[in-house]
Design brief:
By secondary structure, the chain is of the alpha+beta class. Helix content is 32%, strand content 14%. Helix 6 (212-225) crosses helix 8 and helix 9 crosses helix 10 (334-349).
């Protein structure tokens, strides 16, 4: 009983300490030279991976971390780091030295990330690799690592704690998710992380960046998923296979999809009730009705080419594939989830052509 009360108190203190993290990035402007380099990389960014799209080969039941993560029992070594967000999670190091992120505590972000990352990857976008794991054995993990870490940081005791971690002891976390980053080096500037949706207009196809159709397909995909938690740090600009920010074609990707299918994180009724289009006659999309009034996502008129690009890929997914996607994510009511998915695809695919447009609309 005492331990339970302590857990509740610890969670409350941790959430209070983290209260401001979800309300924007709040980071200082980076040095001018680094910022210019990052912006130059963004102009050359692509939004699709270079591999060809093949719907018939998609298997949503396949573990994206197969051969690296054991879905029954994965052991790792606690890697203390600064806390962020509000969902219980911690970083851990595999015996190979690779860092993984573990989310625990029955969060709805676990099925959201499992489904959204697999869908984004299957459609050709960038996505991290998320596995559902029955048990993670963490050597050195404290009790309630996320909230304990938040409390230690608030009290400025984190450095003292880090020197006294007992790596001979372990804690087990059941029914968790394990995330591995897509291979590549993140392109950052100072404390600035990721990119905002209103910056997508900076991408220049004349410099090898994504076309307007491809960028609009990404925007429309964000609407399809309800990616309302889109502060800059929840997207990433990455240089796949390179270690410098000067790669020819960086990849602009969504990296945090824990709040999708909602907006209340895998909320079937809300996902069903909210249409894709704000104004179907103009192919206008909006997130103003979602939390934070859309965040960095500005009202945008989707081009016909962008609509057709995403529609052509979504409509090639079979009912069996869609049901497997939600089943593999651990969701209940799979037939209902698949039906809403197909309804949203039809909103995009089975409609008149979008009117000609040259830029975002308000």
């Amino acid at each position: 009983m005492k331990r339970t009360l302590f857990s509740v108190a610890l969670v409350g203190i941790g959430v209070a300490a983290l209260g401001g993290f979800e309300n924007g990035d709040g980071v200082p402007q980076p040095p001018a030279k680094e910022w210019a380099r990052r912006n130059d990389a963004l102009t050359r960014a692509r939004v699709f991976r270079p591999e060809p799209f093949d719907a018939a080969s998609i298997d949503f039941a396949a573990d994206p971390n197969r051969g690296v993560i054991d879905p029954s029992l994965t052991s790792c070594r606690y890697k203390p780091d600064e806390v962020s967000g509000t969902t219980p999670k911690f970083d851990c190091e595999l015996p190979s030295g690779e860092k993984i992120k573990v989310k625990y505590g029955g969060s709805h972000e676990i099925p959201s990330e499992a489904a959204a990352t697999r869908l984004l990857h299957a459609l050709g976008f960038g996505a991290d690799r998320v596995s559902r794991v029955e048990m993670v054995r963490c050597y050195g993990c404290p009790f309630q690592p996320f909230h304990m870490r938040a409390l230690l940081e608030m009290l400025n005791l984190d450095a003292y704690f880090d020197k006294r971690i007992d790596y001979s002891a372990h804690r087990d976390f059941t029914r968790v998710s394990v995330e591995r980053n897509l291979d590549g080096e993140a392109i950052e500037a100072g404390d600035e992380r990721g990119w905002a949706f209103h910056e997508l207009d900076k991408i220049d196809p004349s410099r090898g960046g994504a076309t307007r159709a491809e960028v609009d397909a990404l925007r429309l995909m964000a609407i399809f998923l309800h990616h309302w938690d889109n502060k800059s740090s929840n997207q990433r600009l990455t240089c796949a296979g390179a270690t410098t920010p000067d790669c020819a074609h960086p990849l602009a990707m969504i990296q945090d999809v824990g709040s999708e299918f909602g907006p209340k994180k895998v909320d079937l009724d809300n996902w069903r009730s909210m249409p894709v289009w704000r104004d179907a006659s103009r192919c206008l999309v909006s997130m103003k009705h979602l939390p934070y009034s859309g965040g960095t996502f500005e009202d945008t008129a989707i081009s016909e080419e962008g609509r057709r690009l995403l529609a052509s890929r979504l409509r090639q997914l079979s009912l069996k594939q869609i049901e497997t996607l939600f089943m593999s994510a651990g969701l209940e009511d799979v037939p209902q989830w698949a039906a809403v998915f197909q309804d949203r695809v039809r909103e995009i695919a089975d409609r008149p052509a979008c009117p000609a447009t040259t830029k975002a609309a308000s």
